[in-house]
Amino acid sequence: MEETVSTAFGRREVFTKLRAHDRMCHGTAYAWLEGFLAGRGQSGGLRLLDLGCNDARHMARVLSAGDVAAYTGADTDTECLAGARKNLVDSPAAVNLVAADGREVLGGLREAVDVIWMGLLLHHFPQGEKARLFAMAKKALRPGGVLLTHDPMPDVGESAEAYLERYNREIETHWAELAPEERRVLIDHFRRHGRHDPIDVVERLAREAGFSQVVRKRLDPAGFYVLLRFAA
Questions:
Q1: What CATH number is attached to the domain comprising 113?
Q2: Helices 2-10 and 180-193 meet at what angle, rounded to 10?
Q3: Is 114 inside a domain boundary?
Q4: Domain that residue 58 falls in
Q5: In terms of CB atoms within 10 Å, which of 42, 52, 116, 187 comes out highest?
Q6: Residue 23 covered by a domain
Q7: Secondary structure in 3-state letters for the chain
Q8: Does 186 fall in a domain?
């Protein structure tokens, strides 16, 4: 059964369905990002680092506005990066795509950036690695820079187990676009691979790394996904 589940989740159809129905709040998060960046590149030279860029299909629209001068997208999945190259071929920004882990990219930066975007990235890491990511991100930002995260995250004081149980009920009850087997695949994936720390814990880790001015925005009515903004 384990091999069947792993193989099924490896098929991109499930993830494609979820994005088409905005179940993980991609559309909402990237619309917010586009609005946040609007006008910030007027002085020229705005640099954006995207950790876990996937195929950058949503980022393509953000970059098309012209506010970002230089964009670096990083992902460990080379197939996703191939899609990103296609999706960003007409981007007005200078595009650099890197097949690497986010920590490798942050550690090897030669020039500081203005904005770091972590889309659906943090929940893959335990607390210690989250703290390390925040510390590295702080060093990688220019003065006045901003770290933005879009992630599934338990509420203040909510355990990972309670969060996943609530999430699972939502999937089983409302995500009709998924077949029963696809729902089981998705639930199993989150239980096996998620490291879901409550929102207050994540904010504390960022503050301990030197970030301030935390802005919190829930992205869906059910309260599963959140966007956090940290000022360097």
A1: 3.40.50.150
A2: 100
A3: yes
A4: 17-154+195-231
A5: 116
A6: yes
A7: CHHHHHHHHHCCHHHHHHHHCCCCCHHHHHHHHHHHHCCCCCCCCCEEEEECCCCCHHHHHHHHCCCCCEEEEEECCHHHHHHHHHHCCCCCCEEEEEECCHHHHHHHCCCCEEEEEEECCHHHCCHHHHHHHHHHHHHHEEEEEEEEEEEECCCCCCCHHHHHHHHHHHHHHHCCCCCHHHHHHHHHHHHHHCCCCCHHHHHHHHHHCCCEEEEEEECCCCCCEEEEEEEC
A8: no
Amino acid residing at 205: L
Give the model confidence (pLDDT) of 28-67 as tens digits.
999 999 999 998 876 668 999 999 999 999 999 999 999 9
Q: For residue 185, is it within any domain? A: no
- Tokens for 35, please give them: 């609005």
pLDDT digits (tens, 9 = 90+) for 138-168: 999 999 999 999 999 999 999 999 999 999 9
The size of the chain, in residues, is: 232
Tokens, residue 138: 């702080």
